[in-house]
Inverse folding.
């Protein structure tokens, strides 16, 4: 079924239109939601967010335009996932093993690496909420500046500034703690 036909069915409240839309876009929306929620929430919570995205498409069908549905769903998915994190008081997670470095044959090197991971994790966690979120989205979740800008409703130049300031602050903290940079 063509996208224009699907949207027309949704606009006249034909459930088969929503089913067709979901058949096409559930995988896409699920990836966006999962990339934001990751291990911060259960799979059931992620599924609920995905359902909320399609409920928004149903309720706001007048906003949907052929050729622009994927972008609209992606933006709504990012906003709904972020809202879900905020509702529970959570922020983007930094997993304990994100900085794991392969083990060496020398226990003293392993201890040094563990201490470096601890210092970096502590430094990242010391960033202010929004700055930390920008930093994690870019360096941990590998989101582009444009994706972060859309997802957080911030100007791209603001994102770049926050990343630069975050790097400078991390360097300052890690240098003060004696990390080898």
């Amino acid at each position: 079924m063509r996208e224009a036909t699907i949207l027309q069915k949704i606009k006249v409240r034909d459930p088969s239109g929503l089913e067709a839309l979901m058949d096409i876009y559930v995988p896409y929306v699920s990836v966006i939601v999962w990339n934001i929620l990751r291990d911060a929430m259960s799979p059931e919570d992620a599924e609920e967010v995905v359902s909320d995205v399609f409920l928004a498409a149903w309720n706001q069908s007048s906003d949907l335009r052929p050729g622009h549905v994927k972008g609209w769903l992606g933006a709504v998915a990012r906003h709904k996932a972020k809202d879900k994190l905020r509702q529970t008081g959570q922020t983007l997670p930094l997993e304990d093993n994100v900085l794991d470095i392969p083990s060496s044959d020398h226990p003293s090197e392993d201890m040094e690496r563990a201490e470096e991971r601890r210092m970096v994790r502590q430094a990242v966690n010391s960033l202010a909420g929004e700055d930390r979120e920008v930093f994690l989205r870019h360096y941990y979740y590998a989101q582009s500046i444009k994706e972060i800008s859309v997802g957080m409703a911030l100007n791209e130049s603001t994102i770049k500034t926050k990343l630069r300031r975050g790097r400078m602050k991390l360097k300052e903290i890690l240098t003060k703690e004696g990390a080898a940079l």
In short: The helical segments are 3-11, 15-37, 43-59, 69-87, 107-125, 129-139, 145-152, 156-176.
